[in-house]
Amino acid sequence: MDGNGSEMIRRARRATLLIFLSCGIGVASWAPMVPLAKHRLVINEADLGLILLLLGGGAIVTMPVVGLLVSRIGNRMVILVGALLVALVLPLLTTLDTPASLGAALFFFGAGIGALDVAMNAHAVVVQQKVGKPVMSMFHAMFSVGGLIGSIGLGLLMLPGLSPTVSAMIISMLLVIVTVTQYKHILPVEAGAGGGHAFRFPKGPVILLGVFCFIFFLSEGAMLDWSALFLKDSRGFGPAMAGAGYAVFSVAMAIMRFSGDGLVHKYGASKVVFYGAVVAAVGLLIAVIVPGPVAALGGFMMIGFGAANVVPVLFSAAGNVQGSAPGVALAAVTSLGYAGQLAGPALIGFVAYFVRLPVALGLLALPMLAVGITFRKTQQ
Question: Do residues 100 and 49 touch, judged by C-beta distance below 8 A?
């Protein structure tokens, strides 16, 4: 490869890292807003769960279309539009005071996240192929770093007295700056390079990977949408620090994802997914069963450690399924994954309405364990 080609790949890799970072910031900034929204709208957990359906709904409606757009016109414009939509909607989530208006905003917020998610992961697969070694976990580590920044950033900006809206606008400006300076370095994709004239329901291994993603997206979505409310109502955290749970979760994820590519290379995907699922499930049970803030944060940290490299492994597998273009296969898998994030908040809300939020969260440990066991068996 000549010098120009190497420089192009280096810039594309850096751009992808920063896009993952900004996406993580955007997604996680919603976590500390959840208790504020519940208080502002004066609603219970079940009603909040219904509103949260629309966030996942925006993503899952968008993703199949985005997969086709990625395969036909490339990632650049999809990433640009998706990221700018997230930045535009984010401040609105702190001001809207009716269930209908907040739900509509969350739908468009989810649509932007969904578009960005498919496009950046499809591009990450291409960059990984160009680099010639595993780098997917590194990209997802940057998403987790963004999760840390977003989940505590809003609270830290509010501590000096800034309003949630002004704080969210500052975060949005950061997202815009990253996007407009980096999207031009995304590798171009030739029109028609992805196959398929229309969305086709996935078959075989893509479906199974999608089901696994469904479960872990549901679990990760629970951390995003419910951890702050759990810490506030069940563990006595104040509004400014309610995002600490998702922050700890994100830190643990980032640490493990920075070493994830090496772990996959050394131990194999099967063991990484199996033991990761076990650690995540045990951490979740500790967080919701053992009283006290230290146990809660420690449990969230274990969830992050365990879950960190499960989704990157699944995405890498989807991006390399024989007979499917990366953009199209990833669109199918992430669509099924976001179906979990779509169903998760409402399901947890309804269950929490009857049996309390800690119990509703704790029940997620069972499907997480099932993913680890099933994936290990399919790889033998």
Answer: no
Question: Which of the 8 DSSP states describes residue 94?
Answer: G
- Do 189 and 70 touch, CB atoms closer than 8 A? yes
Write the pLDDT tens digit of every residue in 206-217. Answer: 788 888 988 888
Could you tell me the pLDDT band of residue 112, with boundaries at 50, 70 and 90?
A: very high
In angstroms, the CA 11 to CA 15 distance is 6
Residue 244 and residue 255: Cα distance in Å, rounded?
16
Exposure letters 12-35 (e unless 16+ CB within 10 A, then b): bbebbbbbbbbbbbbbbbbbbbbb
Structural domain spans, the chain: 10-185+203-378
150 with 24: CB under 8 angstroms? yes
The 10s digit of each residue's pLDDT in 326-374 is 556 777 787 777 777 667 777 888 888 888 889 999 999 999 999 999 8
DSSP H or E segment with residue 137: helix 136-158
Q: Which residue has the tokens 């900006």?
A: 157
Q: Which residue has the tokens 């955007």?
A: 26
Spatial separation of the C-alpha atoms in residues 338 and 324, rounded to whole Å: 20
Q: Which amino acid is at 342?
A: L
Higher pLDDT, 126 or 196: 126
The domain 10-185+203-378 is placed in CATH, from the list 1.10.240.10, 1.20.1250.20, 3.30.565.10, 3.30.1960.10, at: 1.20.1250.20
Residue 1 has pLDDT above 60, yes or no: no
